[in-house]
Amino acid sequence: MSNKECLLEVKNLRVEFGKGKQKFVAVNDVSFNIYKGETFGLVGESGSGKTTIGRAIIRINPAASGDIIYNGQKISGKIDKELDSQVTRKIQMIFQDPMASLNERAKVDYIVSEGLYNLKNYGSEEGRKKKVEQALLDVGLLPEFASRFPHEFSGGQRQRIGIARVLVMEPELVIADEPISALDVSIRAQVINLLSDLQKKKGLTYLFIAHDLSVVRFISDRIAVIYKGNIVELAESEKLFANPLHPYTKSLLSAIPTPNPNVERNKIIEVYEPKKSHFDYDSNRPKWVEIEPEHYILANDRELEGYKKIMGR
Ligand SMILES: Nc1ncnc2c1ncn2[C@@H]1O[C@H](COP(=O)(O)OP(=O)(O)OP(=O)(O)O)[C@@H](O)[C@H]1O
């Protein structure tokens, strides 16, 4: 990206659930930036903490420590009302399952307007209706659909409704949490294309969450790989694919299916099993290091030496 203006900074974010002996660290010391206008992919297996990070950014999950900075202003912890309503509007999240995330008893008009209603002073009723119409058009649905109920729509159309309810807020940063995982394979590309078109048209910035590297590869400018609450590697997409360093990134890459059955049959998937001590807080605990420009890795001193050798330095 030529023009690198930072929209979101996540600094040493830690999110915990439970207390005392039950305490569980879902996100551990995670740091990354998202630049204006880019698509930032966040990839990792189920339970790795992806959604928790998204929910921390929209301030549903409180940060146990660390900061979240949006457009230069700290938005984690206690913030004033004005900033709160600003970011509530500007940062929006699209959810995975369009079947579960839409209120069945409400009409599309209400569903798409919900965020506006929460803002209280959303303007005139006529203005609201116009916004809903425009949002439906933007996602390729007819304005008449506003008077229908979610069950009248297919999975793909429902996800479009989910996108419309985000667009109506005129967001800057959209967190798309596995937006196509629950959809039929045949319509996934349509939804991805819609998201790309909307990004161009409206200058949106995306945090795109997925468990599958192949999904984020072509739409992401940069990708972060997360394992058990720790981001282990972050790089520009093509760099990550061309030169993955961390063994977990390698194992994710090796798991991507190829269209060639002969290759598939003989393929060895590298399973990542970190040494028990790796993420412990021992003396040689891994650090988050920029190993080359825009390429970060979580490694302890010894591993770092190894990676540098691989890179011919
Ligand atoms: N409200 C909560 N209370 C307790 N534990 C939670 C809560 N929310 C998430 N967790 C735990 O935190 C970990 C990370 O969950 P998270 O949903 O962020 O993972 P994920 O990478 O998004 O996975 P998935 O793809 O399955 O959604 C999981 O072990 C999960 O069980």
UniProtKB/TrEMBL annotation:
Pfam family, one: ABC_tran
Single Gene Ontology MF annotation: ATP hydrolysis activity
InterPro entries per UniProt: AAA+_ATPase, ABC_transp_ATP-bind, ABC_transporter-like_ATP-bd, ABC_transporter-like_CS, Oligopep_ABC_C, P-loop_NTPase
Keywords: ATP-binding, Nucleotide-binding, Transport
Domain of life, per lineage: Bacteria
SMART domains, A to Z: AAA
Example GO biological process: transmembrane transport
Gene3D superfamilies assigned to the protein according to its UniProt record, in alphabetical order: P-loop containing nucleotide triphosphate hydrolases
The ABC transporter domain, residue ranges: 8-253
Leader peptide range in chain numbering: none
Keyword Transport appears in the UniProt entry: yes
Protein family (similarity comment): Belongs to the ABC transporter superfamily.
Protein name as annotated: ATP-binding cassette domain-containing protein
